[in-house]
Amino acid sequence: MDRAGARHTGADSAEGRASPDTARSPLTERSARVASARKLTRRAGRERAGMFLAEGANAVLESLDSRTAERPRTEVREVLATSEGLRRVPEIAERCAASGVPLWTITERAAACLSETVTPQGLVAVCEAPATDTATVLAPRPSLVVVLLDIADPGNAGTVLRVADAAGAGAVLFAGETVDPYNGKAVRASTGSLFHLPVARERDADTVLAACRGAGLLLVGADGAAHSDLHTAEESGRLDVPTAWVFGSEAHGLGEYGERLDVTLRVPIYGRAESLNLATAAAVCLYASARRIRPDVK
Amino acid sequence: MDRAGARHTGADSAEGRASPDTARSPLTERSARVASARKLTRRAGRERAGMFLAEGANAVLESLDSRTAERPRTEVREVLATSEGLRRVPEIAERCAASGVPLWTITERAAACLSETVTPQGLVAVCEAPATDTATVLAPRPSLVVVLLDIADPGNAGTVLRVADAAGAGAVLFAGETVDPYNGKAVRASTGSLFHLPVARERDADTVLAACRGAGLLLVGADGAAHSDLHTAEESGRLDVPTAWVFGSEAHGLGEYGERLDVTLRVPIYGRAESLNLATAAAVCLYASARRIRPDVK
């Protein structure tokens, strides 16, 4: 909350800057600032800039909180908001002011340009994607880790991030061809958990698995066709150790990676459903581990 | 699979009827058959007709299987399909023929009219909503039951149905102002489980709770603010009895109903997430009960 640490304070044009004393005309979708934020709605733009957008009241507030968190820490470059959005969520202007994060008012149309939702909330934080890697996030030796392997759907990825956070996981690793964790839909589905948990990306899945093994984690894959079932493994004490849960693609599961893990387990199906979806299967698996490891009790 | 049991076989006009020997012109969106099916995309239309639509290859095949199931049993009035859809999923024409369910080809535009998805699969079954009630579905004394109370989102309702099926629940009760289980999005999200599990609707939630109690079920509510947590309850043997899990609205939880249940439990949050979403919370709760009750072992 160090005002002296605020950046940009002198350099910004006064136009659009939200300030307590003057009402300026809001930035339109044609302004350079909105145009450059808009590039972050695409993966290529995010990767080029190393930045992403967090949309909605909850995500913006979480991003602002995250600036002062121990770990992980996300820098917020600026917040873009409609005056209606600021009226609805007055804490945002207060927190921006308290932490020296530049706040700009934008038009409703500019907000629609930056939004991937049908009804934009008119509140967007422009954030720096934390520069980190698999080794760094595994360095504190977390006792519960999630590996997402070739997960295609951003909603699924974000929901699993939320479940991982709830179950006390210490990191989520995006491996292989998995969707970008900073995709707008993934950020929204994580409901703030993206700002709670260290996340790293690595295209080479074998590197991720080796790093987990090197960090003393048992590699456990979720596989609907596995011989052993989760509850039996849990009862036998198999899950009483630091574990990396590996979840494979919605379409093809773990594929060839299944054989390279220490064990694969299926969530037992007691009824006639063919399977669980990714997020509900992950919830059952991660809570089975959490029950045993109690990751909150360090 | 009794051909003699087929209805409608004589009365239908030949136009549009898919048959192995002749190619007729497909039904358009202006045909009476498609127009009357289209009414089932709205709740009022479904309630008036007592029928609903099951869309997509998986749902159509499940509905056809359900006709010969022990319980629940759904009657399929007819299947409407584009020729492209039938080419892609040839089992549908085979199963319709084998079971005497009328099959009609429709145009792509007619399929789009009947679909609530962006990319319609061109495969729709017109089904009768089973006429049942809470007392009937509880009569076989299931050991695990799910009560959905004021759940607004059809995707959530369908996903919980799928989880309930996987966890071996014997019934799902839609209580209060809960979304229609036969809503197209709910049917899709259930991925066939709507055809596996007896489902009943009752607007008076107290009637549902009383019926569950009368059926010997412990009434357990999921509540993020409850004092007792799920794992402690599970370890103490509290969940070793026939249980009705009650899940409240996404926005307001159990509300006043919490006090009328035997116990409310929270899923412990080990990390910094504020909560789990409905489907993942239900997965953790229902599998905790399933682990204890093993509903497959009757």
From TrEMBL, chains A, B:
Presence of the UniProt keyword Transferase in the record: yes
Span of domain RNA 2-O ribose methyltransferase substrate binding: 53-133
Region (Disordered) residue spans: 1-42
Alphabetized SUPFAM superfamilies for the sequence: alpha/beta knot, L30e-like
Any one GO cellular component localisation term in the record: cytoplasm
SMART domains: SpoU_sub_bind
CDD domains: SpoU-like_rRNA-MTase (cd18095)
GO biological process, any: methylation
Keyword Transferase: yes
Molecular-function annotations in GO: RNA binding; RNA methyltransferase activity
Alphabetized InterPro entries for the sequence: Alpha/beta_knot_MTases, MRM3-like_sub_bind, Ribosomal_eL30-like_sf, rRNA_Methyltransferase, SpoU_MeTrfase, SpoU_subst-bd, tRNA_m1G_MTases_N
UniProt entry keywords in alphabetical sequence: Methyltransferase, Transferase
Family: Belongs to the class IV-like SAM-binding methyltransferase superfamily. RNA methyltransferase TrmH family.
PANTHER family the record matches: RRNA METHYLTRANSFERASE 3, RRNA METHYLTRANSFERASE 3, MITOCHONDRIAL
Protein name, as recorded: RNA methyltransferase, TrmH family
Lineage of source species: Bacteria, Bacillati, Actinomycetota, Actinomycetes, Actinopolysporales
